[in-house]
Design goal:
The protein has 92 residues and is mainly alpha-helical. The protein has three helices and no strands. 86% of the residues lie in helices and 0% in strands.
Length: 92
Amino acid sequence: MANTRQALKRMRRDARRRERNRYHLSRMKTYIRKFRRMIEEGELEKAREFLPEVISIIYHTASKGVIHKREASRRASRVTELLNKALKEAQG
């Protein structure tokens, strides 16, 4: 347990930040899961319309400092690649 007033304040602040970070991370992962499920179920048009929203959430999470901007770029790239691959397989 913290002994000083400063340490107690830091614990309270860290708890608020941890809760906020968990919210943003969970929200991002949920959107990615929904997107992947659409692709698995073959709802490619629905997934295509949902992609900009997913990418927006990913970059929003990075802007909050929850994930690094390079991680956001990597995740956005991977979901885009996933959709493109599924669309290509559906055509051919």
